[in-house]
Amino acid sequence: MRVVVALGGNALLRRGERADASVQLHHVEAAARALAPLAADHELVVCHGNGPQIGLLALESSADPALTRPYPLDTLGAETQGMIGYWLARSLRNAGVRKPVLAVLTQTVVDAADPAFASPTKFIGPVYEREHAERLAERNGWTMAADGPHWRRVVPSPEPVRLVEQESIEHLVGSGTVVVCAGGGGAPVVDDGKLEGVEAVVDKDLTAAELAIALKADRLLLLTDVSAVMSDFGLPSAEPLDHLDVGEIDQLEFPAGSMGPKVEACRRFVLATGSEAAIGALPDAARVLEGSAGTAVR
Ligand SMILES: Nc1ncnc2c1ncn2[C@@H]1O[C@H](COP(=O)(O)OP(=O)(O)O)[C@@H](O)[C@H]1O
Ligand SMILES: NC(=O)OP(=O)(O)O
């Protein structure tokens, strides 16, 4: 089977956790151990998130007195692809993957007129108490939004239109390489005859779905920090759903910036290919693929 997996940035750095490289590497190594059996049995493409990581790089850049302007988000997105791609490629090999493993810097074309540029929804960086969030918003001109009981920076997240490196990714995966790509949804660029970076963070689940459709993948797996999609999420009556039919998704509501794009990514993949997608916990990767854990979307 050809399998496209997307790993959550929050699964690589949990909310409130210390952002040290060693902490993240520990999670990446666990992710690689969970993915190694999939790499042995299938053609595997690994996309990853970057929300916590790009937010930290933006904080560093905004606090650097040597800069006249902080680094733009497309460039910071590419930095996170290098960092997380390197960790993943190294850890997959150390986890016993015998195939070639390659991390590919990926650019995602978005539409300059996408309405998402006017209403930021993508959470990045750490969570804050309200007062701290308000100070950062004022000092840096950032937009902050509630993320559960905390506050977090939000940035525009336009729709992925196409991946610039898609053909190369297809050649690589078709020739037996485990490809790490489309990190952080891909560095966002607009194409007006010339590629230009833009201030945004593309949703990696939506990019992974586009890529999975383009690669005619047999499965799309979205692996995160919850074991399944829950009904009544956050309420005492919450229950894991073992499956979701695409026909019923429209009647349900999922939050933008977290579960919403995951369910939408699965819906797009299932409708475009007729194949199944699934959402589940990273350590359960093999069981989510075989359908004995997580939420299958069909
Ligand atoms: N209905 C739901 N079922 C499960 N989790 C949900 C639901 N609605 C919102 N969530 C939240 O979605 C989060 C996963 O999305 P996100 O934080 O974007 O993950 P990642 O960074 O791993 O892609 C969970 O940690 C949970 O807090
Ligand atoms: N870019 C992106 O979707 O990152 P997260 O998975 O960390 O939200």
TrEMBL record:
Q: Which GO terms describe its biological process?
A: L-arginine deiminase pathway
Give me the reactions it catalyses.
Answer: hydrogencarbonate + NH4(+) + ATP = carbamoyl phosphate + ADP + H2O + H(+)
GO molecular function terms listed in the Swiss-Prot or TrEMBL record: carbamate kinase activity
Domain Aspartate/glutamate/uridylate kinase per the UniProt entry, residue ranges: 1-272
User: What PANTHER family does the record tag this protein with?
Assistant: CARBAMATE KINASE (PTHR30409), CARBAMATE KINASE-RELATED (PTHR30409:SF1)
What's this protein's family per the entry?
Belongs to the carbamate kinase family.
NCBIfam families reported in the protein's UniProt record? PRK12354.1
- Which named protein is this? Carbamate kinase
The lineage is: Bacteria, Bacillati, Actinomycetota, Actinomycetes, Pseudonocardiales
